[in-house]
Amino acid sequence: MYESTGFPLTYEDQIYFNLWVAEQVHARGMLVGFKNDINQAHDEKIYNAFDFVLSEQCFQYDECGYFSDFLRLNKPVFEAEYKLALKKFCPQAKNLRIIAIKKRASLNSTREDCSTYY
């Protein structure tokens, strides 16, 4: 599923930008996370360049499989769910080695984690 940006950008344009961001962040001695681009998560250039994934609702939308290459390389996948009950995603998160929480969308909200499932 691709959403139109209104600009004539290609898959390769996005890869180029993502890799530029990763290079700039690493050049400054920091780790860089990959977010909101599941369609490129399986690209070897991407999963080799980024240090971790931050995902939202990958269990609700059945998208966690997109991050299998990151997990295969022992790169962490951090995941937030907003609607599912802990029992609906924590066991699967544990099996996949995804670090998952449930929270409300507001920034100041409390959160629940899957620690009782680990």
What do these coordinates show?
The chain has four helices and five strands, in the order H-E-H-E-H-E-H-E-E. It has helices at residues 11-27, 44-49, 68-72, 86-96; strands at residues 33-35, 52-56, 77-81, 99-103, 111-113. Strands 1-2-3-4-5 form a five-stranded mixed β-sheet, with helices on one face.
Tag the structure with descriptive keywords.
118 residues, alpha/beta, 4 helices
Helix and strand element order: HEHEHEHEE
Q: Count of helices?
A: 4
Averaged pLDDT, please? Answer: 93
Query: Major beta sheet, specifics?
Result: 5 strands, mixed
What structural class is derived from the secondary structure elements? alpha/beta
Strand order of the largest sheet: 1-2-3-4-5
Poorly predicted runs: none
Shape: globular
Number of strands: 5
Rg over C-alpha atoms, rounded to the nearest angstrom: 15 Å
> How much strand?
15-25%
- Helical content stands at 25-40%
In a nutshell, what does this entry contain?
With 118 residues, the protein is an alpha/beta fold. 33% of the residues lie in helices and 18% in strands.
Topology, element by element:
Blueprint: H1 11-27, E1 33-35, H2 44-49, E2 52-56, H3 68-72, E3 77-81, H4 86-96, E4 99-103, E5 111-113
Parallel strand pairs: 1-2, 2-3, 3-4
Antiparallel strand pairs: 4-5
